[in-house]
């Protein structure tokens, strides 16, 4: 049985991908603006601050690109799975209880060969289960081995 996917997930994943792309573009622009500003400024302290800001933008850009790559791969994998597996055809209804009843028919004419199934009367071949010799023969009901 095929599980229907919620149709809201596709636009949400596309929105996440677009958001991450905007973040990557913004961080890249910030990095290049700070590098350009650091090359123009004459003050060494401001130049050092802009260089550190540029390095931080580069690290954040790398992380954002890694997350974007991961989300895009996951989105593509999900789309490929949903398109490759067509929904299966439903199987016909089968009444398992009716089939089991047809397969297992008790035949009352045939006596079981298991001596434990029969009542202990003291005369059978299986003397190991004759623990009470003083009981009258046939006083105990036969043991049901299915209980």
Description of the structure:
This protein folds into 2 domains: 9-84; 111-147, no CATH class. The mean pLDDT is 76. Helix 1 packs antiparallel against helix 2. With 147 residues, it is mainly α. The protein has helices spanning 9-40, 44-84, 96-103.
What is the number of helical segments per DSSP (H or I, 4+ residues)?
3
Note poorly predicted spans: none
Distance between the termini: 37 Å
The overall pLDDT average reads: 76
SSE string, helices as H and strands as E: HHH
Q: What structural class do helix, strand and pairing data support?
A: mainly alpha
Quick summary:
Helices cover 55% and strands 0% of the residues. The protein is mainly α and 147 residues long. The protein starts with 8 loop residues before the first helix and ends in a 44-residue tail after the last helix.
Please supply descriptive tags for the structure shown above.
147 residues, single chain, mainly alpha, 2 domains
């Amino acid at each position: 049985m095929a599980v229907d996917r919620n149709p809201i997930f596709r636009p949400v994943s596309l929105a996440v991908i677009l958001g991450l792309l905007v973040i990557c573009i913004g961080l890249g622009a910030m990095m290049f603006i700070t590098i350009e500003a650091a090359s123009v400024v004459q003050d060494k302290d401001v130049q050092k601050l802009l260089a550190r800001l540029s390095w931080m933008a580069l690290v954040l850009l790398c992380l954002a690109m890694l997350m974007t790559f991961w989300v895009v791969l996951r989105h593509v994998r999900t789309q490929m799975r949903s398109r490759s597996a067509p929904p299966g055809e439903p199987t016909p209804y089968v009444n398992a209880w009716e089939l089991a009843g047809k397969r297992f028919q008790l035949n009352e004419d045939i006596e079981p060969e298991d001596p434990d199934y029969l009542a202990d009367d003291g005369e059978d071949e299986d003397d190991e289960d004759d623990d009470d010799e003083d009981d009258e023969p046939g006083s105990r009901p036969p043991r049901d081995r299915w209980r």
